[in-house]
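Morning run. Coffee first, then this:
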Amino acid sequence: MVNNTAGAQEILYSLQTDEVPRVMRPMTEQQYALFKRSFLRNYGDDYVATIVDLPEDITLFINSLKSQPPHEQIRAIEDFVRTISYYDMKNKEVMDLKRGKSFSERLEIMEVRVEELREQGKDTALAGKKYAGVCADFALLTSAILRQAGFVSGVLAGFNVSGKRATLSNAHGTAWVAWPSGNGQQEIFAVDGTPDGLAGISRPSLRQYEEIREEKVADLKAEAVEQLDEVMKILDSHNVESIRNLTNGKLESILNAVLRYEVKQDNLAAIKRMLEAYWYSPARAFDLSKGKDLDGFRSFFASEIVAGRESLNLLDDSQVGSLLFNTVKDFLAKMSKASGQEQAYNRLEQLADTLSQSLNKTENKALAVIVTYLRAKQIKGDNE
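And here it is:
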């Protein structure tokens, strides 16, 4: 933040955004309640205190959401505020009235303002609207509803900038909700009650961010599959020079797309159980070239993989990909000590091929990507 701009010719800002928008991970009411208790122990109850006594119709709406999971309730609250709100482009006419007032009084002014604008009859978008105001008003209203619904919430103030210039006209306020990140911490998600369709003002809703995420993830996954096929052909050629010419960026983009957006907890559990069973059982001595041994081998591991999927731990999805990568990497390191590096890679690839019918599509792809990445790094001589 620049506090003293005397003598400054220009102030530059940088804006960093995720290529794929973050979304709230689904959870049960009980899971959110545990998180909320932990949050209140650490930070006190300021962010759950009542902001305003809400009207009966809004209270009835909140009560109607109780059967829904917490993340669905939050999305519904954001949609609701957008539906009942009207952005007052002539807010200056009532700014003096709002100044210094309690939020309860501001709500009354916002209700009267809607009727005033409706009587002027200049905007059909006023149909069904209850409150007229600006983003700061809707931020407070959204946060008040979130708190009454039982969520940890507050108000964010900043800038909604999409171009190369940031001015006071880009100032924007939203509510926020605290959400567990899955690693024992919390993250903040903006919940914006500002109505849709306002150029330079409106932001995507939580639902729209999820749609954007799904589209981007689908594109990244498709690109990763295409690139993986290309890399596999290079590796299958055994042309060391071609392999060494592979860029780290290409390898890592494939790996990240698969591990971050495809691998889930059941995939990690299945592969981990498979590798542990292989390492700690006599199965390592099986001769996979013999039909009798092969049938017994597949039967044994099919049951182990199923057992792995049934023993899930509740993990944050953002952790699962890196855990799987490290699981495979550690397995290869142990195998390399026992039989040599090249034999370790060959043996794991043979294991994956033999059990491909027991593993699902994502698990087969994840193993192929991880082994391909590590083998290429090893051939190139890159350090981890």
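The chain has two domains: 29-203, 213-380. Good start to the day.
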